[in-house]
Design goal:
heterodimer; A: mainly alpha; B: mainly alpha; 2 domains; 16 helices; 1% strand
């Protein structure tokens, strides 16, 4: 076995894992917040996430064709794209809740889940339809920005592109803002109260419907931000590419303990790291018999194992009595 | 009486119309609609049986003899009817939402595809394979057993999970099976990876019938058996145990329903139908690859069950028919029609259709159809088109 190689790629794999982990954490927040409030898996969240990526690519492509993408300062462009992605994804999440979930709030449990699967499929093809008409293409590539692709070469085997640092910084900032909103503001208190007990919260004068919309707005906005960062980091997107990251982010949310916000962050990081290491080392350790293509199986196996042996996740489920 | 006249008349007229307009989607839909009408019409049951039997056993093969395309559609509908009925046991009767159902279809398909083609030589060495065509009939049972085994294999670890968690894990299971099929071309070449397996052996056919007709009758026979099994199960103690579990697991357990055995049985039964159809599918297609067994297919089958009504046998048949026809005929028809308009350079409201984007292909929007079906049915009619009485009452109470 080639031990120097195994050790040599370690820092690079670690970095990839951290980036992937933050991506999962941002998406997982949408699942976990909605689950905390409604005890319902928002299956369409993966499409709300990828809509953010499409908003981003549309803005960047428009700026490019206007010829100003390289003259504007890149932090400003990135900030604008992030905010736009968050706004549209958040608005979409609220709309979806209003149309497809709210009428079903008192129905048996499987009914809203099936509706959510419907929304997920509908949105995938809706994105495809819109992009096919608008651009006559639905596999889109993020325009490259030179400053973002600059790489700091630390050693011969390790280099860190600026965009990765930006992704990590943006994700950290987002998670911090969310933490403040949920734990330090009146709105956050209201969200936690609704998650705890809807009836009691509404007796205390909290407008439960508004808080649920707000939860979808925040979760959707986080998903949209993750979408933009996903596009910046990995480049190629299509209407269906949100699905697998969404599923993994859900796994991350379960891993951390669904309904638990710090848990989603931890779960995202753990899953991202595990996946990055599985993808890079599986092939080396089995002498090429099994390669990176098994990383999805790896993630799903983790999901199944957690649900069987520790259904409350690493940090414990905040929602009462279900698994 | 009017119903009887109408039913006979409708079937007659539509069959005649199919013969006159051999490639009209609308006419074929009319034919299928008339069968449905014969099923629900208030007519004596001997007339119903005669009409449906005549239509399915005589008219359809005759139509198919002149127009193979319709027979192909009918066969596909049959395959999906069996799948929908299998999923109906798991989702409709036992209330276990299975989002990876197509995995069992895949297991059945590969269980014949590997020994029924030279692929097995790569695994076992020598050149004993493909097995002779007669083995196909034995492998219908092998596929059934293997898929049922896979059902139990999935069932065992997820027994403790409920509702939405179960859904996600079954989804993961479906993806795992697909990824395995996609990648098990090394270290040992089991599935030949994304390139798929071909040529898969076809069964010997009596009386020198064309293959398309033979597969139609085979599928029809299997569907008949599946419907029979479903009806017998529904009112047996097993079926009642399933429904009890669906309504209230705790209460069912308290009443002495063996939870573990009943749930495993539900998974195994549902899976076995898919396994048998998988074997037929692989022989019919000659070629299979993992692309036929995606999550999209699982949701398609789920949409069929939901559209017809969870737990309802005629509902599952109707749902499978409508969704398959939408997919195979209406969407494709729309694509062709749009292309013709484009090529002819027709203008609509001053807009030249030739300027439409080339990426816009209506045939590719099956997800949108499934999605709309699922959302609308859940919001407006969660009990489905043909609801089971018990289910309808339960949902009416809730809303």
């Amino acid at each position: 076995m080639d031990y120097p190689l195994l050790l040599g790629i370690f820092p690079q794999v670690l970095l990839d894992g951290i980036i992937l982990g933050f991506m999962y954490a941002l998406i997982a927040l949408g699942y976990t917040m909605v689950y905390g409030v409604l005890e319902f898996i928002n299956f369409a969240h993966s499409e709300i996430f990828i809509v953010g990526a499409f908003v981003g690519v549309e803005i960047l492509l428009s700026l490019r064709s206007a010829g100003v993408l390289d003259t504007l300062p890149w932090p400003l462009v990135l900030l604008f794209v992030l905010v736009a992605g968050m706004a549209i994804s958040g608005a979409l999440a609220v709309t979806v809740e209003r149309i497809a979930y709210r009428p079903l709030r008192t129905a048996p449990r499987l009914i809203p889940l099936i509706s959510a699967i419907g929304v997920s499929f509908f949105l995938q093809d809706l994105i495809r339809l819109v992009e096919s008409i608008w651009r006559n293409a639905f596999n889109l590539v993020y325009p490259t920005m030179d400053q973002l692709n600059y790489r700091f070469e630390l050693t011969e085997t390790i280099d860190v592109p600026v965009k990765s640092l930006v992704v990590i910084a943006a994700a950290l900032a987002m998670l911090w803002v969310l933490h403040v909103i949920v734990n330090r503001t009146t709105i956050g208190t209201a969200i936690r109260a609704v998650a705890e007990d809807q009836a009691a919260a509404s007796l205390m004068g909290i407008d439960v419907n508004r808080i649920i919309s707000l939860t979808f707005l925040i979760g959707g906005a986080m998903g949209g931000a993750a979408g933009v960062l996903f596009g910046v980091q990995y480049g190629l997107i299509n209407p269906y590419s949100g699905f697998i990251p969404g599923l993994k982010a859900f796994t991350a949310a379960v891993l951390g303990g669904i309904g638990n916000i710090p848990g989603a962050m931890l779960g995202g990081l753990v899953l991202g790291l595990l996946e990055a290491f599985a993808a890079s080392y599986l092939s080396l350790l089995t002498a090429g018999a099994f390669g990176a293509e098994y990383k999805d199986i790896f993630a799903f196996s983790i999901l199944i194992l957690i649900l069987i042996f520790r259904p409350k996740g690493l940090l414990g489920e905040v929602v009462r009595g279900r698994a | 009486m009017t119903h009887a006249v109408l039913a006979v008349g409708l079937i007659g007229v539509s069959a005649w119309a199919v013969a006159v307009f051999p490639r009209s989607v609308l006419v074929f839909l009319l034919f299928q609609g008339s069968l449905l009408f014969a099923y629900v019409a208030r007519i004596p049951s001997w007339l119903r049986v005669t009409l449906l039997g005549l239509a399915l056993l005589v008219l359809m093969p005759t139509i198919g003899f002149f127009n193979g395309y319709y027979l192909e559609v009918a066969t596909q509908v049959g395959i999906f009817v069996a799948l929908a009925l299998g999923l109906n046991i798991v989702v409709g009767l036992a209330g276990l939402l299975d989002l990876g159902y197509v995995a069992f279809f895949a297991v059945g398909a590969y269980s014949w595809a590997i020994p029924g083609s030279p692929q097995a030589n790569l695994i076992f060495g020598g050149n004993a394979f493909p097995l002779s065509a007669w083995w196909f009939y034995a492998f219908l049972f092998v596929g059934l057993m293997v898929a049922a085994g896979a059902g139990i294999l999935l069932g065992l670890p997820v027994l403790r999970l409920h509702g939405d968690y179960l859904a996600i894990v079954t989804l993961g299971f479906g993806e795992v099976i697909r990824v395995l099929a996609n990648n098990l071309d090394k270290p040992i070449n089991l599935t030949n990876g994304p390139k798929g397996i071909t040529p898969i052996g076809r069964p010997p056919v009596p009386f020198g019938m064309p293959y398309s007709e033979a597969f139609y009758f085979l599928v029809l026979l299997i569907v008949a058996v599946v419907i029979l099994v479903n009806r017998r199960l529904e009112n047996s103690h097993i079926g009642r145990a399933w429904e009890a579990i669906r309504e209230d697991e705790l209460a069912a357990q308290a009443m002495g329903v063996p939870l573990v055995r009943s749930k495993l049985l539900a998974f195994a039964c549902g899976a076995s139908f898919a396994g048998v159809m998988g074997v037929v599918f692989s022989a019919k297609q000659i070629f299979i690859n993992p692309e036929s067994f995606t999550f999209l297919e699982s949701i398609g089958v789920l949409a069929m069950v939901i559209l017809g009504g969870m737990g309802s046998i005629p509902g599952a048949v109707l749902g499978a028919t409508v969704v398959t026809v939408l997919n195979l005929q209406v969407l494709k028809g729309l694509s062709l029609w749009l292309n013709e308009l484009k090529n002819a350079g027709v203008t609509v409201l001053g807009y030249n259709l030739a300027d439409l984007p080339t990426q816009l292909e209506p045939a590719k929007y099956e997800r949108m159809i499934f999605g709309v079906i699922l959302i609308l049915m859940m919001i407006f009619r969660p009990q489905g088109i043909f609801p089971v009485r018990r289910r309808a009452r339960e949902l009416a109470k809730q809303v």
